[in-house]
Amino acid sequence: MYEFIAIGDTVTDAFIDLKDARIDTDFDPGDRAMKEICFRFGDKIEYENLVVVPAVGNGPNAAVSAARLGLRSALVTNIGDDEHGKENLRTLETSGVHTDFILTHKGMQSNYHFVLRFGAERTI
After folding, report:
1. Helix (H) or strand (E) holding 118
2. Any idea what DSSP says for residue 44?
């Protein structure tokens, strides 16, 4: 019935391009550089741009890619019954991914990641 079945977490990513932050570099005992993103505590954090991308993750990305290649693709994953979960389902269906194996959990929230970007770096 399906030519490709992906398994994995589904998440909505909110990419936030920070406007004003500072990167501090410290070294751990192993002499490895560790970077920290810093901003002033208590301030409003300004950002330049926000892009929200629903229905992503290793499994969903693979399933969508397979569907775009013309394969009958499905995804095995779990989502919440919140608005983000509903949007993830709509996005996958619109992308040609069959949702027969997606389990929606009542009363649960879907995965949502805030991805802070500053310059070329990002952290989730």
Report:
1. strand 111-118
2. -
